[in-house]
Design goal:
The complex is a heterodimer of chains A (about 425) and B (about 250). By secondary structure, chain A is mainly α. Chain A is built from 15 helices and no strands. Chain A starts with a helix and ends with a helix. The chains are: A mainly alpha (about 425), B alpha+beta (about 250).
Chain lengths: ~425, ~250
């Protein structure tokens, strides 16, 4: 029995590998590129933390301790929760049009959260101590402690959800999915809380970030699933049709809605800052006409909001190519939203208001190449895992549709 | 001199004419937080502080014994930075970090003295944001003396405490592979029977007065519990309840 199971497993793996190697030159070159990025990132991270020392290798310093790598981590884990939420609309809450994207969304949710863990693992100075003292010496009042716990639970439930949805056991999958959402939303709002509860940082402090992160997650979940579904069909060499067409149309609509929500969040945050304290005014100034103006106006507002909004409206949910460009822009620019959010919270010196010489300038931050490589390592892992996943699970060919889900449901009810 | 030690009448003038009785009442609560450092002006002093720290939020009895605190007599500082050097030598502070720093402020248009020096360090807060944020209790408030300590072996190096600290008092020490910060020289001096911190001992101008806030006979207690001179803390709005007090004179 055991032998038979093993031989089945080996043959499945062989099939998958065959599919990978026969993926064609484009597929293989992109897979190699992502693989190289992943290896380069991990190498750079290990070298930076354990050999060179982060002080020498990374662009962070005493006054800007959290920067690119934390932003990348946030980028990935927020996306992960978003994908988990988007997948749940179909396979947990039963909205038929969201069914076809569910499996891919769950797999991507697992992949993106792992990418996030990879990046933060190469950012922490002593990642191994964390494994011990998170359990041996927990601080229940710390958001970072909760972050570790909640994300660990989330990733376990996501994996369980994925395994059982692939085996068409929808009962277990739904239960795990529901718990996954619970822990995912808790984790993501708590991630906002990591920043929102630092009373010494005026720009971060307050209930804005935990709520913003949830809305932003859903937006990113929608954008990312459209992005990867289109690529998955390129990899498969299929055209998007049938239930997937209507699915992408409705996900596109949700993307527009969430983008509008994020626009309101952003507008009111900026407007409210005009009457804030000194730190807020300085950050506002830095974002609107200072060193972060390009990031804010061009990357965040134009490429991340206005252009995608127009493109998504124009596509009417039917012109997949235009939707793809829109969501690609959104994903790209959201990375800078995260980066600006993290860095802008630290640029105003803590002793600014005293008017002392030592802290009379805003702090500046520029990532080093080693830091950028680690962030790209996360991207590499995400890309490579997605591409391998598509081949391993055969592009979710057998079971993307509504019918199958229905059958699975009926089975599990019996 | 920009600031002369304010006499009683002037304090009341600046602090919105509160009565002597009110003022005494407030002082009983514990600590007179009478000003904001911003711009060097003593702002709306005592009456505003009552709103900031509602009655009872600063314990009448200090929670630690000894309750280590420091008073920095800021106008006495001559900027010699011997405290910085003393700290570095005593606590093996590397050249890329600092536990205490003397900041310098210049006001060219000021009448008289145009420059002042402001020593800063970890404020050993009663409600420390760094301690709350640390996921693994690598930094903690000592239950006996109130010093915010580090347990180096636990530090995972997430640096959230650095972001949380309102006083920029923390840095990552490569040699220790942990965050380093001022511990009032507990490890290097106090735990070995010394009674004073390195920065205080090396200061030639008696700027840094270190002592026990819970002991009425201690100089720190007496400097803080007096009516003549305003005493303030930095960044009171964060509600961290710091234990480094500033005063002039």
């Amino acid at each position: 029995m055991e032998d038979r199971k093993r031989s089945v497993f080996i043959s499945v793996l062989k099939d998958a590998l065959n599919r990978v190697f026969s993926g064609g030159p484009f597929y293989l070159s992109f897979l190699s590129l992502f693989g190289i990025l992943f290896i380069a990132g991990v190498t750079s991270g290990i070298y930076s933390i354990f050999i060179a020392g982060s002080r020498h290798a990374y662009g962070t310093y005493r006054e800007i301790p959290l920067a690119l790598l934390i932003a990348t981590y946030i980028f990935f884990v927020v996306t992960s929760t978003g994908l988990c939420l988007v997948s749940s609309i179909g396979h947990i809450f039963g909205v038929q049009d969201f069914m076809p994207i569910a499996k891919r969304a769950i797999l991507l949710s697992v992949i993106t959260i792992m990418s996030g863990f990879l990046v933060i693992g190469l950012e922490l100075e002593n990642p191994f101590r964390m494994a011990i003292y998170l359990f041996a010496s927990p601080n229940f009042s710390s958001n970072i402690w909760w972050m570790g716990v909640l994300y660990s639970f989330e990733v376990v439930f996501l994996i369980v959800e994925f395994i059982f949805i692939m085996r068409n056991n929808h009962k277990v999958s739904e239960a795990a999915g529901l718990l996954g959402i619970f822990f995912g939303v808790a984790a993501i709002s708590n991630l906002g809380g990591v920043f929102a509860m630092l009373q010494g940082r005026e720009y971060w402090y307050g209930p804005y970030l935990p709520i913003f992160f949830i809305a932003s997650a859903l937006m990113m979940g929608c954008a990312v699933i459209i992005f990867f579904t289109v690529i998955a069909y390129w990899i498969k060499g299929d055209t998007i049709d049938g239930p997937m067409t209507s699915s992408l149309k409705i996900v596109g609509k949700l993307t527009i809605l969430m983008l509008a929500v994020i626009m309101f969040f952003t507008i009111w945050r900026m407007v409210a800052m005009t009457v804030g304290g000194t730190e807020k005014l300085l950050v506002l100034d830095a974002l609107v006409k200072g060193p972060y103006a390009f990031n804010f106006w061009v990357l965040e507002v134009t490429l991340g909001m206005i252009v995608p909004f127009v493109l998504l409206l124009w596509s009417k949910g039917r012109r997949i190519g235009i939707m793809f460009i829109a969501v690609a822009l959104m994903i790209f620019s959201t990375f800078f939203v995260r980066l600006d959010m993290v860095v802008a919270g630290e640029i105003v010196p803590q002793y600014w208001e005293m008017g002392v010489k030592e802290f009379s300038q805003l702090h500046t931050y520029a990532p080093t190449w080693k830091e950028i490589l680690v962030a790209l390592g996360g991207v590499g892992f995400c890309g490579a895992a997605f591409m391998l996943g598509e081949k391993l699970f055969n592009g979710f060919r057998e079971a993307p549709g509504v019918e199958e889900a229905k059958i699975g449901k009926a089975d599990s009810e019996l | 001199m920009i600031f002369k030690p304010l006499d009683k009448d002037k304090i009341f003038e600046k602090s919105g004419n509160i009565s002597e009785l009110d003022r005494r009442e407030f002082l009983k609560i514990g600590l007179a937080v009478t000003g904001i450092f911003a711009g060097g002006s003593i702002v709306s002093a005592v009456s505003a502080a009552e709103k900031l720290f509602p009655r009872g939020t600063y314990a009448e009895k200090y929670p630690y014994k000894p309750h280590y605190s420091m008073v920095i007599r800021v106008d006495q500082c001559i900027g010699c930075r011997r405290c910085e050097k003393g700290c570095v030598a005593t606590n093996a502070v590397p050249d890329y970090g600092w536990r205490t720093k003397v900041l310098e402020r210049e006001v060219p248009q000021a009448i008289g003295q145009k420059r002042e020096f402001i020593p800063v360090q970890c404020n050993q807060c009663n409600n420390p944001p760094c301690v709350r944020a640390c996921p693994v209790k690598a930094t903690y408030k000592d239950k006996a003396n109130g010093i915010v300590m580090m347990d180096n072996k636990k530090c995972i190096g997430c640096k959230i405490c650095m972001a949380a600290c309102p006083y920029n008092a923390r840095y990552f020490n490569e040699e220790k592979s942990a965050i380093d910060k001022c511990d009032f020289c507990f490890e290097s001096r106090l735990s070995r029977g010394e009674k004073n911190t390195a920065c205080s001992v090396t200061c030639p101008a008696d700027v840094r007065v270190f002592g026990d806030l819970s002991n009425p006979k201690d100089r720190v207690y007496q400097l803080i519990h007096q009516l003549q001179k305003p005493v303030w803390v930095l960044k009171q709005e964060t509600f961290a309840k710091p234990n480094i007090f500033y005063m002039k004179g």
